[in-house]
Backbone:
């Protein structure tokens, strides 16, 4: 089978190549899946570069999510059938065939397109799990930066369904208008003078008890400038690739607490995660949730795909496409 591989850590466009490999065999509780479409996520590229939380055993096949067709069942698997289309998190998905844990996969209804199905986990499920972990009640406020990112937009939408208020921070004024056109309000641009006063006017002086940071660097202090004393700062990402810059006084005198959220180890029970993923499939089946792919590259062009994924201004994910169709 054809697979994307990197034999060393480094810039993805430099170290990625394609090669022939032996097709894996499913073990107990696993299914062999013929890949249809696999998205390129930021954490995939960071892993290839050696900048993520773990270092893969080399040579490695990247990819952590996909949609595909069940080709073979491992011992003990009874919840899927050969020929069924499934989606979910997995390892080594940038290949014609990959192994998936049957308990972490879900069947995909015919009404859900491949573009949406292949990326149900990383962004939508992360947003749902993050919101769940905040333990906020109806009417309470949370502030987030990178509000125009995929997770930021989804979190605002899911929070609104629960009656939770989200104050969003973005960099440019133009982005505020773009989000408003999507039905996402309560957003301010940090490039504008007096943006903190605009933020406080939006909340009406209400307590802002949670702050979600996806930037690192100066991002936390922007959030904390509008968050309330005693607020909890959740580190969700590090787009700037800089350390968190938080003065000791924020912790000592304002009672700010800081914790991290990693979707690979969420503070939720596996059963609840499965329920949330099932709800996302239902949303996708009804047309409520639709995710786009800007371009899909064959495995032989994986380096070009990685390069395209790093280009700014994309309207959707870059993906790797397999030879399977459904």
Residues:
């Amino acid at each position: 089978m054809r697979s994307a591989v990197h034999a060393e850590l480094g810039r993805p466009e430099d170290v990625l190549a394609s090669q022939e490999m032996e097709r894996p065999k499913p073990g107990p509780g696993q299914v062999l899946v013929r890949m249809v479409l696999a998205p390129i996520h930021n954490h995939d590229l960071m892993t290839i570069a050696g900048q993520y939380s773990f270092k893969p055993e080399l040579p490695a096949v990247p990819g952590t999510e996909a949609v595909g067709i069940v080709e073979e069942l491992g011992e003990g698997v009874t919840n899927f059938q050969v020929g069924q289309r499934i989606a979910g998190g997995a390892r080594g998905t940038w290949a014609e065939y990959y192994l998936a844990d049957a308990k972490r996969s879900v069947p995909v209804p015919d009404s859900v397109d491949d573009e949406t199905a292949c990326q149900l986990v990383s962004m939508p499920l992360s947003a749902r799990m993050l919101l769940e972990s905040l333990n906020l009640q109806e009417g309470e406020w949370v502030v987030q930066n990178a509000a125009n990112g995929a997770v930021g937009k989804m979190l605002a939408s899911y929070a609104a369904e629960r009656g939770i208020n989200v104050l969003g921070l973005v960099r440019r004024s133009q982005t505020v208008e773009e989000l408003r056109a999507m039905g996402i309000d309560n957003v301010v641009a940090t490039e504008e003078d007096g943006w903190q006063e605009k933020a406080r006017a939006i909340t009406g002086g209400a307590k802002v008890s949670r702050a979600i940071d996806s930037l690192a660097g100066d991002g936390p202090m922007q959030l904390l400038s509008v968050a309330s004393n005693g607020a909890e700062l959740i580190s969700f990402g590090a787009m700037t690739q800089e350390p968190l810059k938080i003065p000791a006084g924020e912790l000592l005198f304002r009672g700010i607490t800081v914790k991290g959220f990693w979707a690979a180890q969420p503070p939720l029970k596996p059963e609840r995660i499965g329920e949330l993923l099932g709800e996302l499939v239902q949303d996708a089946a009804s047309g409520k949730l639709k995710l786009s792919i800007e371009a899909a590259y064959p495995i032989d062009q994986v380096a070009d795909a990685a390069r395209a994924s790093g280009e700014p201004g994309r309207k959707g994910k870059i993906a790797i496409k397999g030879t399977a169709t459904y």
In short: The longest strand covers residues 30-39. The CA atoms of residues 17 and 271 lie 38 Å apart. The radius of gyration is 21 Å.
